[in-house]
Each structure stands twice: as structure tokens, then as C-alpha cells.
Amino acid sequence: MLPNPQCPSVPPSAKFSQHVLIQGRQLLYRTLDGASESDFDDGATERYEERARLIFRSLQLPLLHDRTLQLLEVRIGGPRVDDSGWQRLPPTDAHGVVEANVRFSDDDIQLIDRLQGNVAVEVRLAETGDTVDSTAAPQRRPSAAPVQAVAELLSPDGFGVISDIDDTVKVTEVFYGIKAVLQNTFLKTFDAVPGMAALYQGWAKQRASFHYVSKSPPELHGPLSDFLQKKGFPVSSVHLCPLLGRDRANFKLRQVTSLLSQFPNRKFILVGDSGERDAEVYAEIMRKHPSQVLKVLIRAVMAEDVENIEKARAAFKGIDEAKWQVFTDPADIVEPESRSKKLYEEAQVYLHKAVTGYFSPLTLHEEEVWHDYGLVLWHVGRHMEAAHNFQNAVITNPSFPKGYNNLACALVLLGLSNQPMNVQLVQQGLQAAEQAISLAPHTPLYWRNAAVLLSMTGDQQSAIAAWERFRQADPRTAAAEEALGGIPRDCTWEFYFR
């Protein structure tokens, strides 16, 4: 879904806008039992102005300007020197939103890094076509500058996390009532629930995708996305509910179900809290889609709130207890069935089929067998055997960047684990990292892992340079990792199969 840029040619009245903000602020403080600006920190007024303006502007726009039937156009690959590549989208709906499938040309597809992650997107208002002279060229609003965005490319399989926002990752205190919600939404700094960013980063290192679903209005998309990034939460998509939308009560059920249907071969962990109806919604989804839901995790927002906690537990009656958990501390979460064990078992079958000729040469390459089996061996602790498998993968196919990437991680980690350090293994690992980058210089992951390995070996200057290349290629992921403490200390591995 793409938000509709506001139309500069019919701007809301500045006087009306300011009047609405003032009236809204007075109403807000009356709702808070006569509280005043002096009861909050110096940034409260600024935060109110920013967040409330977004919402009031949206609410008043229908009075001043019909947002339906606005036409947008989109192109991929980021800014270009020419004006080519734009594709017209269907008209926006009453909330200024458009949803569409778009086909891109072969030339456009060449602009996408097919091996890894993200693609730049530009959206702008289309030509109006509003002209009296039918022979005249359509006119574009001069101030309708393109909006920059980043779209993440997801493989059809793998696993993802679908997460609530309020009181799951962001402190909103819904359980304290409307006054607390208003304060935390409009006046206070957005605070993260302790431990959740680290939990999600752990899943991100296993190549999980992340989808946030909340009944917060789309007008808060910007502040919420900034919060998630600054606090170190990985983000793939954010799905919010229009403030004046119909059937808001069933929004989460509808949106999560839609995500599962969009990715029928992916499996998901669903995360919510006990303050609202997350347990009931997720339990219903699990019963309807048992094969797609790995586990449901419900955060107990107040340990002493026994009634809501028991209500959450009751929602899962009849469902295997290994498939859901109510938790207080993220550190207490029991992960879904060991991925290492499952991957090892899958790899044994995979390798057996390869060796016995079950796969045809058109569907399987020898280097893939060595590579993926090596990964599984690494994750079950058979590190030296894993390194040999990665080595065999790149010997089989010297133009195999994934093999060099994982070989680099394995050799450096093995070299550093020796006492004293095995300098030869470390050097061989760094050479493998260079080879991965030389084969696929536009793949952000290889720059990231090179920075991690160089930092581990003490070459901070080279590590910072490599990390800068990673940041340029994938700024969103880099910012999320930096928020947790700078250049991380662990590699990201690549799988062919899940």
C-alpha cells in the first residue's frame, strides 16, 4: 500500500489548521483532568504539534479536498537522470491509499539487486490532465516532488514475525485507559518495551521478515516508523488502520490473514499483548492456519493483571501448549522447535536425495548441496566440517558468492576461536569475504559481514569503511543494527532452503 502525498494545490487553510490544533490541545488537557503543558517535559508541545497535525490534517482534508480519485505513478530503482520508468496506479480510495499489482520491464528489473533484500521506490502525483484545451499536454503540479521509499523483496518461503505495536514493542499503557493512551500518543516520547528489540534482532539474524500490524492511524506511520528504527527494531512493513475506517474491530484479524495469504509458503511467529484482544485474534488465526503459524507469543503487560492473563490463556484452549506462550520477560520466551534440529533433519533428506539422483541437474547444483549442508553442520556445532563443505562449494563453482560469504564467516570465527589465534585461517577468511564482494558488489549482506569480520579482527578502520558501504546499500537495516550498539559481532548466514 502506498500513501497518497497531500495535494499542494489545495492546501488546508492555515488558520483553520491552527484553530483545530489549539482546540484539540485544550480538549486533550481537559481530558487529562486539567493537566497543563507545565506537567510535561519541554518537548511535549512540539510532539503534540507534530503528531496531532498529521491526524487533524487528515480529518479536515475531506472538508477541503476530495482525496479519492487522486492518481499516482510509481517507478523502481531510485532517482534517475531522466524521467522514464513511471507507471500509473489506480485511483486512491477514500483514505488516500492505493493497492495494486505492477509489472515492470526487464530494464527496470535490472536495477534491482536480485540476490539481496531491498529496492528503492519513487511515488509521485500523476499528471492531472485537467486542461480546457484537449490538444494541450497534461500538466503536473509543480510542487508534487516524488516521495522516496524502500521496498523489501521477500522470498516466497522462509519465516516471518507479525507483531502488534502498542504495549508489545512500544509502551502505550492501553490497560490504564484513554488518558494514558493520549499522553503516550501525543505528549510523551515513544518508549520501547525492554528486551523486545534484542529479541527481534535475534530473529532478524535468522533472516526473518517483520510485519507490524496496529490499529494506530496511518497518519502516525512516520513517527512510528522512526521509533522502530531508532530503537533497533527490524522492519519489513507497517500496516495501520484508518481512523475513520469501517470495521476497525476486525482490522487485525483481516490484516494478519491477508499477510498469511500473500505468503502461503512462509511460516510466522505472531506477537501481541494481553492488554487487548491479541490472544483471541491470534488463536482464531492459528486454528484456521495451523501449518503457517509457528508460535503465538503474548506479552503480559502487567504481571498482577491476573484476569487478562488468564483470559489470554483461555483463548488457546485445545491448542498444543508448545505452540503458544504468555510471557512477561522476553528472555523467558521458549523459541519454536529448534530450527537447527529441523534444518539438520531437512538437510539429511536433502543431501540423500541429491546423492541418489532424486533431483535433476536442472533443479540442483552440486555447490548448493555442499553449501547448505555446511550451514546445517555449522549450526549444530560441527564447525570444521562445515568449513570444509563451504570450501567444496566454491571449489565446485568459483563464481559462487554465497559460498565465499559463508566460508569467510566460518574461517574467521574458527581462527579467532583458537588460542592463540590461527592467523592463517583468519587471513583466508578475509580473502573469502573480499571474493564474495568482488563477485556481487551490490549485495549489502556481503559488505555487512565484511565489516563484522574486520571489526572482530581489530581492523576498525577497514571495518568502518565496509560498514559505510553497507549503510549506503541498506540504510534501514544498518540503522536498526547501529541502534543496538554499532557494528554487530555476529555474521548473517545465507540459506538456499528453509
From TrEMBL:
Which UniProt keyword terms apply here? Answer: TPR repeat
| TPR repeat segments | 367-400
Residue stretches spanning the membrane: none
Sequence ranges assigned to domain Phosphatidate phosphatase APP1 catalytic in this UniProt record: 159-299
SUPFAM superfamilies in alphabetical order: TPR-like
List, alphabetically, the Gene3D superfamilies matched: Tetratricopeptide repeat domain
Give yes or no: UniProt keyword Transferase. no
Keyword Phosphoprotein, does the record have it? no
Q: Name one Pfam family in it.
A: APP1_cat
Kindly provide the name given to this protein in its UniProt entry. Phosphatidate phosphatase APP1 catalytic domain-containing protein
Instruction: Please report the organism this UniProt entry assigns to the protein.
Output: Symbiodinium necroappetens
